[in-house]
Every structure is written in C-alpha cells, then in structure tokens.
Amino acid sequence: MTVFDPTEHPHRRFNPLTQEWVIVSAQRLKRPWLGKVETPARVDLPKHDPKCYLCPGNERSNGTQNPNYEDTYVFKNDFPVLLSGPPAPAEADNDLFVSSGLDGVCRVACFSGRHDLTLAEMDPEGIEKVIDMWIDQINELSQTYKWVQVFENKGAMMGCSNPHPHCQIWGQNNLPTQALREDQSQRAYMEKHGSPLLVDYANKESANGDRTIFENYDWIVVVPYWASWPYELMLLPKRHISHLNEISGAEKKNLATIMSQLLICYDNLFETSFPYSAGFHGMPFSGGNQSHWQLHAHFYPPLLRSATVKKFMVGYEMLGEIQRDLTAEQAADKLRSLPTVHYLQK
Ligand code: H2U
Ligand code: ZN
User: What distance in angstroms lies between residue 164's CA and the mean position of ligand 2's atoms?
Assistant: First the structure.
C-alpha cells in the first residue's frame, strides 16, 4: 500500500478561521507550462510626482492641499465607501430582501512622503513610524467604532490606483463578513479548548518549523497550513495580544524588523515590487470578553509563477472550492531559500 505523500496525493486542508476547505494537488506541478514568463520592465518612479494626489504639497481632487509631510500622513478618504451616520434601511420583514445600515469612516494613510518607496524598501525605523501611526489610528477609531481595519492594497495587479506608498484605515460599527467568521471560529475554539486558536496555532508552527519563514522573540511568519494563495503568509505574535495597540516598545521594534524581512523576501521572489492585499485583524472594540481573539496579519499575494503570471480564483474555485498546486511547505521552502537583501540593493 502506498503511504500518503502531500506532494503526490491530492487532499483537502481545513482553514479553521474561515471554516473553508482548500484542495492541495501538488502532483499537478509536473504538468507542462506553455504560458509565457516575462519580467516586466522596471519603472523608475520620481521621488516626488507633481501629478500624485498623495505626494507632499500636492492638491487632491477636491482641492485640499497635502501638507509637506516627511514620514506618515493620514486624511479622510475624499471618496469614502463608509459615511458617518447615514439613514438606515427599514428592518426586513422577510428572509429574501434583507439589508442593514452601515456607519463608519474611511481614511487614507501614507507611509512616507517619498513617492518612489514601498514598505519593502523602507528601513525598519521607517516601518516603525508606520506602526506608530497604525496604533494612533486604532486608539482613536476604537473609541467610536467596533471594527478597525488597517489594510494595504499594493500594485496595479491588485487594482491599486497609485504607487505612492499608502494604506487605508476603515472604522465601522458592524463586523464585516471575514471578521465575523474569524470571531465565531475563534470563540468556538476557545470554548472547546480553553485557549485561543491562533496562540495554539503559532506555538505548533514554531515547534514544527516546516512552514516558518521568519521568527524572532515576539513574532512568527508562516505560510499557513491552509493557505489559499500560492505564497500567502500569516504574521502572528507569539504571546496573546488582542490588537496592535497592545504591543510593547520591544515588540514594535521586532515587528518592524520581521515585516521588513517578509516584504524583502516577497520582492525577491520574482524580483519585482510584489503585489498583495494585506491587513491586520484584531479584536472588535465592542466591550465584552474578547479573550478568544488573537492579533494577526494576512498577506494575500496573487502571483504564482513569475512577476506577471498570477493565480486566478476562477472556475472550480468559484463553483466548488479553492485549489492550489504547490503545498504550503513547498512555498515555505521556496521563500526561505531567497536572499535576505533586497534585489534592488544588490
Ligand atoms: P487605493 O489604495 O485603492 O489606491 O486607493 C486610494 C484611495 O485614495 C482611494 O480610496 C482616495 C481614493 O478614494 N483618494 C482620495 O481620497 N483623494 C483623492 O484626491 C484621490 C484618491
Ligand atoms: Zn506621490
């Protein structure tokens, strides 16, 4: 009888956060690849772009002038998805046409006054200032809103409209779908096991090491066992921390260091400015016991094979379930094998 080999035998893995299954079928890596693999021409961006609405001193579309900032700069999104206190629709009297009100705020936050930088090219000291800005925003928005979402959408491939290094920060009074799922999963796990799901998970990954990319005294970066995207990563604290505004000064330094390592590794994979959507998930600020919540960050990058070949979540993924070719362990091996110096600094 043949023994199970995850690189040979198709199987499914369970994502305990989303309660979804993922198909892993690494035997498909043997198939021939006929698509073209190209390295895109490098775009040299100016340090300041007079046409960029995020650059210091420039005018935004509504006529507001940005200050001459150097490090971080936060402003209310001029075209926000969420509005503060709009009228709510009437409560549904049926199960088919159900809607709910939505109350919140959307902000845009620049990482640097430099138009040509990315987080990956900033030094850990610069990243630390970004973390400070995230913490200030979380402290402020958590006074009013139940859910604070810090997220970065990077690269034209992800639909990002501007290369100027920036993220978005939304505060809202309801839990969005992903947050609600994670809340329910972590709560159920805590009730069953008496410890937080992601604290247990980080401990087990740290002990095992097969999927670990970087680890320091306070943080660990892994390709999650249940990863959907080829080079998906998860960043986790090693102690129980509910949200980013709870970290100590030493933890902040180590977070900046590990984020820098992670992002350099991403850029080095295909020698390109690596596109991704990434963000922090932390406890809701709604009072009540949130001890089931563990802070973490997800990094969802679309690239599969080269700087231009991305994974499409289509076909069976839309109609059945997500499928991946390389195993999480193979992706981790690949990421671990990369140089630690940014390819542009070689
Ligand atoms: P992206 O991160 O998806 O590129 O979005 C940048 C945001 O900047 C976008 O949400 C906002 C857009 O609404 N924006 C302004 O707030 N003011 C402007 O003058 C242009 C863009
Ligand atoms: Zn700019």
Answer: 4
For residues 198 and 294, is the Cβ–Cβ distance under 8 A?
A: yes
Q: What average pLDDT does range 246-263 have in this prediction?
A: 98
Angle at 190 between CA 188 and CA 196, to 5 degrees: 125
Q: Is the CB of 51 under 6 A from ligand 1?
A: no
Q: Which ligand is nearest to the CA of 117?
A: 2
- Write down the pTM of the prediction: 0.96
Nearest-angstrom CA–CA distance, 49 and 43? 13
Mean pLDDT of all residues in 91-113: 97
Share of the chain above pLDDT 70, in %: 97
Give the DSSP letter of residue 60. -
- On the 0-12 / 13-18 / 19+ scale of CB atoms within 10 A, 291 is middle
How far from 74 is each of 56, 141, 170, 316, CA to CA, in Å? Answer: 12, 13, 12, 40
pLDDT at 38: 65
Q: What is the pLDDT of residues 90-100, one digit of tens each?
A: 999 999 999 99
**Bridging pattern class, strands 296-300 and 276-281:** antiparallel
> Ligand 1 within 6 A of 108 CB?
yes
Verify whether ligand 1 is closer than 6 Å to residue 58 (CB atom). no
Atom number of ligand 1 nearest to Cα 78: 16
Residue 30 burial (CB count, 10 A): 8
Between the alpha carbon of residue 199 and those of residues 178, 237, 292, the distances in Å are 19, 8, 9
Task: Give CB contacts under 8 A, 24+ apart, made by 175-178.
Answer: 175/146, 175/147, 175/284, 176/147, 176/149, 178/18, 178/281
Domain boundaries, the chain: 43-87+99-345
pLDDT of amino acid 117: 97
What's the confidence (pLDDT) of residue 275?
97
CATH no. of 43-87+99-345: 3.30.428.10
Residues 6+ away with beta carbon under 8 Å from 93: none
Residue 43: pLDDT over 90? no
The span from the first CA to the last CA of the chain, in angstroms, equals 50
